[in-house]
Amino acid sequence: MARESSETAATKPVSRARRMLEGLAFVAGWIAVGYVFDLGKTLNRQCVYLLIGIPITVVFQLVIRKRPLRELWVRNGPRLTFRSVLVPVTVVLMIVPVYLLVRDLADTNGAGFVGYDVVLFVGAIGAGYAARQFTDATWADLAKCFLTAGLIGILSAIDIYSNTTTAHPFGSPFDAPATRDFFVSLGTYLVAVFVLEEVWFRGALDSHVHHQGERHGILSAIFVSLLWSWWHLPLTVGTPVIEAIFQLPVVMVPMGIFLSIFWRRSGNLAVPGFSHAFSDSVRNILIGVP
Q1: Of 111 and 157, which is predicted with more confidence?
Q2: Cα 38 from chain centroid?
Q3: 173: pLDDT strictly greater than 60
Q4: Is residue 8 part of a domain?
Q5: Could you give the percent of the chain with pLDDT greater than 70?
Q6: Which domain range does residue 131 map to?
Q7: What is this structure's pTM?
Q8: Which of 182, 162, 159, 189 is nearest to 251 (CA)?
Q9: Quick check: 141 pLDDT over 90?
Q10: CB neighbour list of residue 23: distance below 8 Å, 6 or more residues apart
Q11: Integer CA distances (angstroms), 142 to 46, 153, 207, 219, 274, in order
């Protein structure tokens, strides 16, 4: 309680309007870099667009929010030590990053993905840290988040990719079982959310825009979700910008609202992170991503 009180006292003089503008500025700058350097053009460049978020998140958390980095994973969590991490979870979640790193190092075209693979190891530590802080209430929030945000994401993916020629319920166009593709994607995203995308939009931005006990929580969740949807603009190659500006929120804002709500309720990034990771993994087998 003392820690929560000190945070409230430290941030009280900063108005919500200013906090929203600060978040908007960081996201707008990130999007601008994506367009200037055409980072949506190839998968390698898309990895760069994601990785840019790491320094952005670190600077925002330490300089703007003035909060410890560990609070990106668990709100008011204990100091990050060996004992505060559930090591078996971390070890298991490192299996897929090891597989990806070995694969990309051996592939002459995979060099651009190596940086992405490496940061996943940090994400595995974050996942183990978040897992150690789980309580019965966290499990309940996880179930509710999955049944709302996760289900919305899955249904959106099914609708969007229903006519995709590569979609197949049992296999992928790469002659690999769809179940394997699904679990590789899930193993990737479960750790990725602790260093990329989700850690910024929920762990950093949502925590900055909305403080515990403030009113109009749904409106602030909509704001964060809008920025999250428009963050994808540089990645929507082939779609006119104006069209994407209106299309992306339709799909992503309903999901994002629940991701924000259950991040706020649980204070554990694994809750929105798992729901996001699961729905994205379903999307990947629908479009045949190996």
Answers
A1: 157
A2: 22
A3: no
A4: no
A5: 88
A6: 16-286
A7: 0.90
A8: 159
A9: yes
A10: 205, 208, 209, 224, 227
A11: 29, 15, 18, 22, 8
Which DSSP string corresponds to 236-267?
A: -TTS-HHHHHHHHHHHHHHHHHHHHHHHHHH-
Q: How many CA atoms lie within 13 A of 157 on its CB side?
A: 21
CA dihedral (75, 251, 183, 258) positive or negative: positive
Looking at the domain assignment, is residue 10 inside a domain?
Answer: no
- 145's tokens: 């988040």
Question: Which residues face 177 on adjacent strands?
Answer: 171
- Token pair 């995203």 is found at 189
169 pLDDT exceeds 50? Answer: no
CB 40 within 8 A of CB 234: yes
| List of long-range contacts for 57-60, beta carbons under 8 Å, 24+ apart | 57/199, 57/200, 57/203, 57/204, 60/26, 60/200, 60/204, 60/205, 60/208
Within 10 angstroms of residue 272's Cβ, the number of other Cβ atoms is: 31
What would the two tokens of residue 189 be?
């995203």
Which token pair is 224? Answer: 């964060």
Rounded Cα distance, 222 and 133, in Å? 28
Q: Which two tokens stand for residue 108?
A: 């002459």
Q: What is the total count of domains within the chain?
A: 1
CA gap 118, 100 in Å, rounded: 9
Decide if 3 is inside a domain.
no
Q: How many residues does the chain have?
A: 290
Residue with tokens 């969590």: 77
